[in-house]
Design goal:
Elements: E1 16-17, E2 27-28, E3 32-33, H1 41-70, H2 72-76, H3 89-105, H4 107-117, H5 119-129, H6 131-140, H7 148-157, H8 159-175, H9 178-207, H10 217-220, H11 222-236, E4 239-240, E5 244-245, H12 247-254, H13 257-287, H14 297-317, H15 319-342, H16 346-376, H17 384-402, H18 405-420, H19 424-446
Parallel strand pairs: 3-4
Antiparallel strand pairs: 1-5, 2-3
Helix pairs in contact: 1-5, 1-8, 1-9, 1-11, 3-7, 3-8, 3-13, 3-18, 4-5, 4-8, 5-8, 5-11, 6-7, 8-9, 9-14, 12-17, 13-14, 13-16, 13-17, 13-18, 13-19, 14-15, 14-16, 15-16, 15-19, 16-17, 18-19
């Protein structure tokens, strides 16, 4: 989930509360910091900032690898038929979709793992968990006789990488003061999102080195990298004592209709990004067999890079306006993709998907920008702490719900192909969803006469 969280939001992407602190940071065995107070200016300047930046650096590494592993099957699936696997297109899209399903489902449990185990400890554990999907992939892709159910289970393990986002954002949110929290979380999220495009760019080259295609290398290459991330976290990261899970924030968020409206919108933005990123290589391989598959990474990379842009524009124009515009751009991209398929034009289809990725990235940043503004609107000073807690819970919930789009989009393509023999109906359904999401954003947050029309959302 997610780069533009405003600095006035306490504990973004989680509903947890930092411990009371003093002006020092004494530690106990296991790299536990007993007291942490980043809001204390003297503490922050003398002690806090270098410690926080060190933890951020290795958090970005671990989250980047998590996204890489989460996206691994999007690279491997288009190459499985040539490796001897007898798979239908529907089965291929299942293998692409199920990592997103698992990753979305475990995001909230991963959020609460940080106070349960400690941020450093959980980063070690979550990095080591990446060994399971990497090893399983390396083993199974060399065995074309493997039953589809086993393939699906191995693909599901990649969902561990998708959960890393939630725990990483949770952990980093505690280390920085409000004035620097947005930037830190932005860097952390950007590092993760970039993993999707980087893995699609680098892994095809790795598996093609030498004679033949060695699909097992797609998994093997991440075994030492996961061990490296775990060691780096163990050696250089820290745990913060006294952090407790604040389930009240999630409870407050679930009772607000805005949580579910924004979660719905986030399916259209982040869900589109992760869904199209997973499906794009297979779409190119099946619809344009002679097209260079190595170009597929450009979409996910562009989507990740455009996310901060969405936040920057939203800061100036308002998150709701930019979100509506991003849905309009998603409609344009999807309709252009339809034209590309019907005209059998690879350049048009490819350009259309670059528009889709750009629009999804901008929408990611803009929708996140809306959350604190929505919960802050019309709230008195006394009620502001409660509103911030609800906003923090909303960010966590929306991040998890939005990731389900990574499941819906590949499955939508598969169902359209099976039922109608074409991908076009799926794209028309996506267009209808984007129109509905744009209208919802307008009706709730921009329409004259609506409860929040006078606010800057």
């Amino acid at each position: 989930m997610e780069t533009t969280t405003p600095p006035d939001l306490s504990a973004p992407d989680t509903a947890l509360v930092p411990p009371a602190a003093t002006t020092a940071a004494p530690t106990r065995p296991g790299r536990w910091i007993e007291h942490w107070d980043p809001e204390d200016a003297s503490f922050w300047q003398s002690t806090g900032r270098p410690v926080a930046r060190r933890n951020l650096t290795f958090s970005i590494l671990a989250e980047f690898l998590g996204f890489c592993v989460w996206a691994l099957w999007s690279v491997v699936v288009p190459l499985l038929p040539a490796a001897g696997f007898d798979l239908t297109l529907d089965q291929q899209f299942w293998l692409i979709a199920v990592p997103s399903l698992v990753g979305a489902t475990i995001r909230i449990p991963y959020t609460f793992a940080v106070p349960a185990f400690g941020g450093r400890n959980w980063t070690v554990i979550s990095s080591l968990l990446l060994l399971l999907p990497a090893s399983a992939l390396a083993w199974v892709v060399t065995r074309p006789e493997t039953p589809f159910g086993v393939l699906l289970l191995c693909a599901a393990l990649a969902g561990f990488g998708g959960g890393n986002f939630a725990s990483s954002m949770t952990n980093i949110s505690f280390f920085f003061p409000e004035a620097e929290k947005g930037k830190a979380l932005g860097l952390n999220a950007a590092g993760g999102n970039l993993g999707t495009g980087i893995v699609q760019m680098v892994v095809p080259a790795i598996i093609a080195i030498g004679a033949g295609v060695h699909l097992e290398r797609a998994g093997l290459v991440f075994i030492p990298l996961a061990l490296l991330a775990a060691f780096a976290a163990w050696r250089w990261m820290d745990n913060l004592s006294g952090i407790k899970a604040d389930f009240r924030s999630f409870a407050l968020a679930t009772r607000s209709p805005h949580t579910w409206v924004i979660s719905f919108l986030y399916i259209g933005t982040f869900g589109s990004f992760i869904g199209y990123a997973g499906a794009f290589p297979t779409l190119l391989k099946t619809q344009f067999p002679t097209a260079p598959l190595g170009l597929a990474f450009m979409g996910a990379l562009l989507g990740a890079l455009s996310r901060p842009l969405g936040g920057i524009i939203a800061d100036r124009l308002g998150g709701a306006r930019v979100t509506i515009a991003s849905f309009g751009l998603l409609v344009v991209g999807a309709l252009a993709a339809v034209e590309g398929l019907q005209a059998k034009s690879f350049p048009l289809f490819f350009a259309a998907f670059l528009v889709l990725f750009t629009a999804a990235g901008i929408g990611n940043g803009a929708t996140y920008r809306m959350i604190p503004a929505v919960f802050r609107a019309g709230v008195s000073a006394d009620a502001l702490p409660t509103a911030r807690k609800a906003a923090a819970g909303c960010i966590g919930i929306a991040g998890a719900v939005g990731a389900y789009g990574g499941f819906f989009i590949p499955r939508g393509f598969a169902m359209a192909k099976d039922t109608y023999g074409s991908l076009v109906p799926a794209l028309y359904v996506f267009v209808a969803a984007y129109v509905l999401m744009a209208l919802t954003t307008y009706a709730v947050y921009q329409r004259r006469g609506s409860a929040l029309a006078s606010e800057t959302i």
